[in-house]
Fold this sequence. Notes:
about 30% strand
Amino acid sequence: MDLLSFTDQWQRQRQLLFKAVPAEGRKVQYLGKEFLVYPDTFWPFADSLPLVKHFRIHPGESVLDVGTGSGVIGIFACYQGAARVVGVDINPSAVRSATHNAKMHGFAGTMEVRQSDLFDALGEQHFDVITANLPFRNKQAHDVVAMSQWDTDFRTNTRFFEGVGRHLHPKGRIYFVQSNFGEIEAMMRLAQAASLRVAELARESIDDTRRQEFIVYEMTLA
Ligand SMILES: C[S@@+](CC[C@H](N)C(=O)[O-])C[C@H]1O[C@@H](n2cnc3c(N)ncnc32)[C@H](O)[C@@H]1O
């Protein structure tokens, strides 16, 4: 089976799992810590690992985590000493999961979670660091669960790059995840159009075959 058909099947199975979570939520392990996901929330997985293992937050920095899901990236930013973290997600179930997890990890006073279509609920706020593990693939998403993995006409990614400069401090940095089964070329074109310098920071695979790879890029304003 080719990589895209294999990935289609695997992602559909994951979406069924996200939907089948009981109303009280399900505990999942990620990098040795426990998180709770409510039904319809994306479960933390290997895709975010290169970002979480390699990003650097200096104590006192402000962080915006776009598409926060269960909140894992924002919560690890808190563990690194961020002074303030805002997590945004379009999916109300993700907002509930991330709010719960921030509190469970003792960061209710540091991390705030808002329901927002990308930057819509942020006003003119600026951040030192912006992290994003958005859906990698340009594929029709018919519901909010599919929207955690697929981006219809790559519109969310396109709007991310059109808007991100308005929320990043001039000397700030972006940590952005993509995959070898995603749209790396399209991402590079969007980043270039947004006057961003792009450097690969790390990549990881879930198994030795390296069939599926997840890559994190560090981006700064040129
Ligand atoms: C691949 S998941 C990543 C979740 C989490 N950050 C992680 O790494 O485990 C992508 C997330 O982006 C969210 N998302 C998709 N489109 C969005 C949009 N337009 N605005 C805000 N969040 C969005 C989805 O609901 C989902 O929670």
